Amino acid sequence: NLSGANLSGANLSDANLSDANLSDANLSDANLSRANLSRADLSRADLSGADLSGADLSDTYLSGANLSDTYLSRANLSDTYLSRANLSRAILSDAILSRADLSRANLSGANLTNISWDQHTKREDVRGLETAVNKPEGF
User: In terms of pTM, does the model score above 0.70?
Assistant: First the structure.
């Protein structure tokens, strides 16, 4: 249980944090590249500016999390709950968003180059898509 922990700027690359409770944690500017965060609770966590490239965030709970300016290139976000998450200016190039819930998420200025998504990706009331970069057709 790392709920509320201050891990700002920590180097956690390749860490196994699957099933961890990191709700309300400060992970801003942390290096979480290639980390396993599957099934973790990151609700309301501050991940702004973090490097999550290649991370496994499948089936992770990120409701209300701050992911602004976060690097999520090649991250696995399948089955992830991102409702009300702030993904403004996040780099999501080549990320997997199959079956993810993006309801009411903020994607203002996000880079969506080559994202993978499917008909089960929930996109109701997503904000900021008009300013997202390289939005795939039909998204």
Answer: yes
